[in-house]
Amino acid sequence: MSTSLPLEIAEFHGDGISSELSAAVHAVADALPIDITFHDVDLTLERRRTDAEGSYNDAEKAMRKCRVAMKYPTVTEDASPNKVLRDRFDFSVIHRPVATIPGVETRIRGTVDLHVVRIATGGTYEDPGRRIGADSAISIRLIERRPSFQASMFAFKLAERIGANVTSASKYTIQRNTDSLFEEVAAGVAQKFPNVGHESELFDALLAKLIMNPEGYRVVVTPNEYGDFLSDAACGMIGSIGLGASASYSFDNDGNILLAMFDPAGGTAPDIAGKGLCNPSAALWAFSMLLDHVGQCELGAKLDAAVRSVISSGNTTGDLGGSLNTEQFTKAVVLEMG
Ligand code: ATP
Fold first, then answer.
1. CB environment 58-70: b (16+ within 10 A), e (fewer)
2. Rounded to the nearest whole angstrom, what is the distance from the C-alpha of residue 167 to the centroid of ligand 1?
3. Going by CA atoms, what residue is nearest to atom 9 of ligand 1?
4. Model's pTM, two decimal places?
């Protein structure tokens, strides 16, 4: 029975295991005590090959209507769908929570419970550099005040909510112009949050300290490429590079979140697609982040915990050594949620 207003979610379907991940999300959604309507958008390679513009226009229409979206993995052939969507929706901040999964073997001691908040644009990833002759090339690294501010605000609000400190990490002693602008913005935002501790850390030192003392870091805000490195490094620390969920955000002029898209960070896994074998945990965690974002925080937390609990009980899909298929694992999660 519904206890709140209907929730409308744009759902961007992709390739490979996308449909199986979507089925898992729907199975959980059907069991929740809220009305949810999904607005399907076909972003499969087949559709994009024949009508890329139309598929992205559909995505944009659904996103503007719902303001929240689930996205599943897509094959990149020419343009990267992730980049197209990021540009169209003006996503400027990516949030990647990475937390130890009980029962999943790791090579490090300690518990990771880290939120990587990353500027989604610039850095060296939209590099307008060029070759100079045959043997040289230059790269241009871009740091901008607006996304630095938005990422910092997101990080401090999150830290305030979970009672944590914020670490801003960059190479401000070496990349003095770019990274000192980023650190200047982060320090300015820190002043708005007197109850949240803030420290700046050199990015290379942060990686070493994080590995030696994972409990010492909860929220790290960082420029684009460093956030990418840190997300993967942290996933390696918890022993599951493919099991992360990710959220992308755009903001209005008052700094409020305008659009939000949630996706499992892994790929399309063509080798197991269609066999019912894939692990839907990251998609379910992405869905739990969406629930949290729309104010269904208790349900979001419950789903997050249920996935962890089922994995830690040893009831896992094959990639984690278990014998459950996607559907069986999802059913176990629904059962665990009660
Ligand atoms: P893409 O080109 O889309 O990145 P890929 O196969 O090169 O696809 P991944 O999709 O990340 O890269 O897959 C890497 C390996 O991890 C594959 O063997 C795949 O089967 C496995 N894998 C990826 N996602 C899952 C999942 N959700 N459940 C189980 N195994 C997975």
1. bbbebbeebbbbb
2. 31
3. 267
4. 0.95
